[in-house]
Amino acid sequence: MTRRVVLEASHAVAEAVKMADVDCIAAYPITPQTHIPERLAEMVADGDLDAAYIPVESEHSAMSAVLGSAAVGARSFTTTAAQGLALMLEAVYIASSHRYPIVMAVANRALSAPISIWCDHSDAMMARDVGWIQVFCQNNQEAFDMTLWGFRVGEDKDVMFPVMVHLDGFTLSHVTEPLLLPSQRDVDRFLPKYDYRLALRPESPTSHGGFGLPDIYTEVKYAQEVALRDARRTIDKAWDEYADIFGRRYSALEGYKTDGADTLILTMGSLGETAQMVVDRKRADGMAVGSLNLRLWRPFPFADLKEAVKGVKTLIVLDRAFSYGGPGGPVASEIRSALYDIAERPRVVGFVGALGGRDLDTGTFEYMIDRGREISEKGIECLYEPLLVRGLETGTVVRG
Q1: Is there a smaller number of Cβ atoms within 10 Å at the N or the C end of the chain?
Q2: How far, in Å, CA of 344 to CA of 12, rounded?
């Protein structure tokens, strides 16, 4: 029986891990991810979850531990944020190269320096090319759903990749919202018992990740690239199964009031719902505006994006991280690249903002839409525009 509960996203993730019946958890606490391992440790200690909980001395050790547990066929989970992900990064690449279906929740947080414990997407963008399936959550319900879905997709015999579930630190991780928790019976229907056919066994020794000479390394990495792109079929299939069982439908790229829109604003993470509020206002004022929520970051949904922007004149992209010395924001840069081969493509206008936890309110979204349309219509040379603040007490947005 489905239950309606009120949980912060961190505890929603923990509930999903519990209902997935994981075998091994290894994590090191770091703000704002701490509530996830704390809650899971309580579940294990109280006997509510029959799993091995490994208290480690660092995030690098956490990933190393779940690499080992995944290698022997244990359903494995870890979690981190910001500098923790940076410390872990060396081993993160190994998980995808070895095709271990670990699920990791990342409570997104700004990278130092200066020290910040609040959210932006600099940690996610740092891990852009690690070879994991990656999704971004808009709200607490999605944090639960995507965690559960991550095990289903990653463990599929046609996929066998780790899955990274991004949730905005504090904005989601520490904020309570109502959500629906499914019955264990329905979860078991959606997520079968994990059977890793290549598990390490003492009685029949094998090797994972051996030495790769130059004459095979490129072929191995290309095979990894092809397999990650091919995972898209199972990603969509699993979302369809999720909708059939739980009644909530997800997709790689979701549009809001896009019919007839000549301007779209694209976001990732929790700010997507704020953007929708502004779209409602602009529509009420007669402006043909809609929004896009990019949920699936890797593998990138090229075809979905091209379909979504047909007939659109201006595509405004909000980045929550800089690509220093580059084209401004990594998401806008990838969007431009993805649309390059379209003859009638929209003009992509990028903004970089909401860094280090700075509030980005509806007024700022209205500014982005108005300014983005102005840049597009006038053909102003502008790869991106930073959202700076003149006087925190007024919140006036100015061009940097």
Answers
A1: N
A2: 42
Give the whole-angstrom CA distance, residue 144 versus residue 383. 36
Q: What is the pLDDT of residues 194-234, one digit of tens each?
A: 999 899 999 999 889 889 999 999 999 999 999 999 999 99
pTM above 0.90, yes or no: yes
CATH number at 253-399: 3.40.50.920
Crossing angle of the two packed helices 9-19 and 140-154, in degrees rounded to 10: 30
- In DSSP terms, 258 is beta-bridged to none
Nearest to 197 by CA among 155, 254, 137: 155
Residue ranges of the chain assigned to CATH 3.40.50.970: 3-246
Q: What is the CATH number of domain 3-246?
A: 3.40.50.970
By the 8 A CB rule, do 135 and 252 touch? Answer: no
Total length of the chain: 400
Where in the chain are all domains bearing CATH 3.40.50.920?
A: 253-399
